[in-house]
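Section 5.1 Outputs to date
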Amino acid sequence: MAIPEVGRLFGHVLLDAVAAWDDEADEALNERTLNLALARLDEIEAIRVTLDDQDTATVDASDVLGPAVMLLLQAVRLASLRGPAREVVIADLRRDLDDG
């Protein structure tokens, strides 16, 4: 899968956000460190918004979808190699999303 440069940078921002998370820290500290890591998204212009003549916004996140999927695929592969089956890992991730 060919990933554009902004997508590569986006992938690193996601990994920075994951690396910054501390399960032992309180929610306020994790929120601050997460926001700091994600602040780089503006800098790299990972998501582009344009307005047409009628002030209708168009959002383009196409450069970030590829690396996001690639990182999830790799995480699921690694998790399933070390433990439960791929389907179980995906089900656990879905449950975590729903439990928010």
